[in-house]
Write a sequence for this structure.
């Protein structure tokens, strides 16, 4: 019998089919995904969700961080920046690095990855992918939201999505909104059930939802904290998808202004507890469709 890492569960259908991996808790304080993974696991074990084909893998990404209700197992630790050759093959021995090495083979083997997240500041729900392909957009249609965000690996490296894409799979991240809002777990379950049926893993309605024409954005630039410090301008940095126009004041580094480079939006503004010199405090994105 194959030995699985801690907090990973896997079931095989009676015939061959796609392999789907569902992550919750890559960041331990993002509870919506953890709740959904636990719900799916209970239903498979109880027989109320049965596999018709393929392989379903469910995983709690960072069990120690979930236990501590923290983003990582220690300050500034981020499991979702460690799925890169340099991190996986390097000499690091942190909890997150070891965990990334345990999870990487599962990610590489998946045909489809659904990585469930939430944001540390208020946000509407949205989808995030590394690559913009017809297949990514097709599978994203199962999730109910009005926005998609494409994040190149060069901007945010080492994510689960980038790793599965690099190995020939399709990576989809769903951000359910603010971490303290658990109201969308039911919507997320409907989306995952629909995708599993569409991919042939479970019985059910295999209809692809219509294309709802959601807005798509591309992240192009990182706002980095340096030794000068940083402060968001009044009213800025409070939530994802804050709009701006060229020349708008986003914040200041010491006495230097940080101005908006184009018509776009601010995404992933960080809470101060996550600020670290050399790391992002937010990102600029522009609409692409």
């Amino acid at each position: 019998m194959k030995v699985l890492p801690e907090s990973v569960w896997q079931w095989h259908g009676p015939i061959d089919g796609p392999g789907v991996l569902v992550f919750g808790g890559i960041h331990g304080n993002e509870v919506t995904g953890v709740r959904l993974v636990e719900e799916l696991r209970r239903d498979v074990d109880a027989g109320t969700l049965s596999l018709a084909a393929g392989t379903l893998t469910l995983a709690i990404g960072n069990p120690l961080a979930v236990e501590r209700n923290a983003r990582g197992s220690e300050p500034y630790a981020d499991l979702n920046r460690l799925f890169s050759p340099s991190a996986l093959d390097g000499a690091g021995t942190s909890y997150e690095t070891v965990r990334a090495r345990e999870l990487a083979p599962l990610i590489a083997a998946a045909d489809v990855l659904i990585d469930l997240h939430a944001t540390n500041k208020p946000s509407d729900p949205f989808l995030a992918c590394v690559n913009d392909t017809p297949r990514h957009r097709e599978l994203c249609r199962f999730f109910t939201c009005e926005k998609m965000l494409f994040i190149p690996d060069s901007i945010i490296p080492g994510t689960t999505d980038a790793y599965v894409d690099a190995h020939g799979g399709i990576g989809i991240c769903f951000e359910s909104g603010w971490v303290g809002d658990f109201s969308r777990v039911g919507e997320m379950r409907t989306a995952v059930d629909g995708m599993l049926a569409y991919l042939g893993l479970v019985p059910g309605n295999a209809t692809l939802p219509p294309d709802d024409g959601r807005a798509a954005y591309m992240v192009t630039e990182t706002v980095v904290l340096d030794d000068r410090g940083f402060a968001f301008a009044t009213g800025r940095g409070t939530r994802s998808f804050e709009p701006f126009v060229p020349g708008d004041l986003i914040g200041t580094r010491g006495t230097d202004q940080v101005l908006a480079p184009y018509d776009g939006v601010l995404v992933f503004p960080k809470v101060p507890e996550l600020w670290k010199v050399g790391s992002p405090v937010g990102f600029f994105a522009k609409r692409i469709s």
